[in-house]
Amino acid sequence: MRRKQFLRVLGAVIGVAAAGPLLTACGGGDDIDATTATISSVTRTLSDEEIEGLKFMREEEKLAHDVYVTLFARWGATVFANIAESETEHTSAILDLLLKHGIEDPAAGNPVGVFDNDDLQALYDQLVAAGQASLVDALKVGALIEEKDIQDINDKLAATDETDIAQVYGHLLCGSRNHLRSFNQALLDQGVTYVPTVITQQEWDAIASSAYETCGG
Ligand SMILES: [Fe+2]
Ligand SMILES: [Mn+2]
What we know:
Layout: H1 2-16, H2 20-23, H3 30-43, H4 48-75, H5 78-100, H6 118-130, H7 135-158, H8 163-189, H9 201-208
Helix pairs in contact: 4-5, 4-6, 4-7, 5-8, 7-8
This protein binds fe (ii) ion and manganese (II) ion (MN).
The site of manganese (II) ion has 8 residues, from helix 4, helix 5 and helix 8.
């Protein structure tokens, strides 16, 4: 996977190869600062981490969508259909950023359930299988996806200083908090108290017990 992804991003990376060392050379020579300022104001190149972050989130949002449409087909619970619609918006918002920054779309041409990232492919297969056993298991899969999504977006958010990317990540986080609330409530309706495994219990409780938010565009 690493090698394949490396080859895929090579084209994008070549464009920033010259600026790369400068951007990471904080604390380097004094002469570098002026050059970096000139380059960044002209090209606004993204770091490898920002590029990989966008590609990952493009597919993780698709994973959420694909799992939910699949579990909706299995159980017919509207919570999956409603949230799947929101995930379509999320993965599209990341696609817009990929296009804007000239990054290849890892999800291009991939139907429901197919992923370029091997980890996300394995996760998708595992989650869809787990969600077949019962409606409660399916709802727990939803809760798990949302807490993982929140964790991953927060990680990517911490690794970018680009306003447009941070704005989209903020929007996705807001949506994920609402989705977490919906799955939490659906589980409570089934008499189940969900125990988070990705974010802390404290984080889970703070989100689950607070009101739905308007996430904006
Ligand atoms: Fe979500
Ligand atoms: Mn989402």
